[in-house]
Design goal:
BirA Bifunctional Protein, domain 2; 2 domains; seven-stranded mixed β-sheet; 12 helices; about 20% strand
């Protein structure tokens, strides 16, 4: 009978470890089935195995005696674990081969050729990535109707009948009062009607406009963001969008705000991100002009601004007093973000259903 580990001196324990390792190596190499191999694994590496007991007893030794014994014991254990894994792989392959020879038809094997598993469309995966980024910043994801009322799509967003901005949002009208929404911004007012401040939401979804070219499609996907609380400033908007740019494009991207115009924000800004293809230098490594930012070092990604007090006027009965609360809003196109991030040259490729394109993502 082997002496108990507690009764061994370190030299005896080292000798026993080597003996166990040799014994286990021979047994593992001779295992003839997966079941037999599992029994050997439990015998030599299980919780009650002798090697495990020796390793546990090391803590009772003087500090100067622990290092060598622990090192040798752990090396032996790792070596045996590797041998078990290799032998298991070999046995499983041999057992599968035997079953294939015995069974003329194995209905558990995939077809030939196997049918490839599907995956998310690039637009869907990009949308989820954007949602995850803002959820991580404390925003809530909400959705709204694609067939929208004129009131929410235009009037309540400070775009009354006859406003010039309506011409830029030409869309399909189902009736005089209903239309296919031109942005997901209607959910700003809808959400504020349902919830008093503070409110932090992002609104993804399909929208419809009259555009159709390499960088615009009649139907596209947008994410609208809205934050309303006390003491919110343009600096909060800038910081939020900078964190988003770094999360979606990687690196230490910077954002730049330029003066812009949107009817439902005041002031309004166009937002650029520093070019990640040329590190905002405007030039490639070979000295040529950067084709992504056209040499400017910046890429436009979205529009934003501080919520116009007139918009709060439509939800004043829900405690949205512009003297007490402020907010910012932003809107970005999911196709454009995916186009910039993955180098897609033409937005129409998203909807042509060419498998050669879709399988790249």
């Amino acid at each position: 009978m082997s002496p108990e580990p507690a009764d061994m001196d370190p030299q005896q324990a080292l000798g026993r470890i080597e003996g166990l390792a040799r014994e286990a190596e021979a047994a593992i190499a001779g295992a003839r089935s997966s079941d037999e191999l599992e029994q050997l694994r439990v015998r030599y590496l299980g919780r009650k195995a002798e090697l495990t007991t020796i390793l546990r007893s090391i803590a009772a030794l003087p500090p100067e005696q622990r290092a060598e014994l622990g090192k040798r014991g752990n090396e032996a254990r790792r070596r045996l674990e590797t041998l078990v894994e290799e032998r298991a792989t070999a046995l499983e392959a041999a057992e599968l081969e035997r079953r294939l020879q015995q069974d003329r038809i194995d209905v558990t094997l995939p077809g030939d050729p196997p049918v490839p598993a599907g995956h998310l469309h690039l637009i869907t995966s990009t949308r989820r990535e954007i949602e995850d980024i803002f959820v991580g910043m404390g925003y809530r994801v909400v959705e709204g109707p694609e067939v929208e009322l004129d009131y929410y799509n235009f009037t309540a967003l400070n775009i009354p009948p006859g406003h010039p901005a309506r011409g830029l949002h030409d869309t399909f009208y189902c009736s005089d009062e209903t239309l296919l929404r031109t942005h997901t911004s209607p959910m700003q007012v809808r959400s504020m009607e349902q919830q008093e401040p503070p409110i932090y939401i992002v609104v993804p979804g399909r929208v419809y406009r009259r555009d159709a070219d390499a960088t615009h499609t009649p139907m596209f996907h947008q994410v609208e963001g809205l934050a309303v609380d006390e003491n919110i400033t343009l600096a909060d908007l800038r910081g939020t969008l900078q964190e988003f740019a770094r999360a979606i494009f990687g690196g230490a991207q910077r954002v730049r705000l330029r003066a812009g115009y949107f009817p439902f924000t005041e002031p309004s800004v166009e937002v650029d991100v520093s070019c990640f293809a040329c590190n905002a230098s405007g030039r490639r490594r070979d000295g040529s002009l950067c084709s992504l930012c056209k040499g400017s070092g910046w890429i436009e990604i979205l529009g934003a601004g501080m919520v116009d007090p007139n918009v709060f006027g439509f939800v004043a009965d829900r405690a949205y007093d512009p003297e007490r609360v402020q907010g910012f809003a932003f809107g970005l196109g999911i196709e454009r973000i995916a186009m910039l991030k993955h180098g897609v040259p033409d937005l129409r490729m998203y909807f042509e259903n060419d498998v050669r394109f879709l399988e790249q993502f």
